[in-house]
Amino acid sequence: MEDLILVIAKALVDNPEDVRVDVREGDRGTVYALSVHPDDVGKVIGKQGRIAKALRTVVASASVKSKKRVIVDIIS
């Protein structure tokens, strides 16, 4: 799952070397914290959050078989 998020995020940004994903297991489920360069935050979020919503939908669809809740947080 981490690799999927990395591939998608690196394709969207201008600084792919600054893309990082931290994985944390918590009460809410598995949390993937996506960190990008401050100049690229808008590209990952998109207009009105459309890119972020699409990213979360793809990750949620890929995690259906594991039956765990998956959360993608975007931080700069």
Would you give an account of this structure?
This protein is an alpha+beta fold and 76 residues long. It has a single domain, classed as GMP Synthetase, Chain A, domain 3 (2-Layer Sandwich), CATH 3.30.300. It is 38% helix and 26% strand. It has three helices and three strands, in the order αββααβ. It has a three-stranded mixed β-sheet with strand order 1-2-3. β1 (20-26) and β2 form a beta hairpin. The chain is globular. It starts with a helix and ends with a strand. The mean pLDDT is 93. Belongs to the KhpA RNA-binding protein family. It is found in: Cytoplasm. Pfam families: KH_KhpA-B.
Would you report the number of β strands? Answer: 3
Structural class label = alpha+beta
CATH class categorisation: Alpha Beta
Instruction: Name the shape in a single word.
Output: globular
Question: Can you identify the CATH superfamily?
Answer: K homology (KH) domain
Terminal CA distance reads 20 Å
Number of domains: 1
In DSSP terms, counting alpha (H) and pi (I) runs of 4 or more, how many helices? Answer: 3
- Strand order in the largest sheet: 1-2-3
Can you tell me the residue ranges where pLDDT is under 50 for at least 5 consecutive residues? Answer: none
Classify the helix fraction into a percent range.
25-40%
What is the string of helix and strand elements? HEEHHE
* Rg value: 12 Å
What share of residues are in beta strands?
A: 25-35%
CATH fold-level label: GMP Synthetase, Chain A, domain 3
Second-tier CATH architecture: 2-Layer Sandwich
Mean pLDDT: 93
Largest sheet: 3 strands, mixed
Subunit structure: Forms a complex with KhpB.
Keywords: Cell shape, Cell wall biogenesis/degradation, Chaperone, Cytoplasm, RNA-binding
Protein name: RNA-binding protein KhpA
Main location: cytoplasm
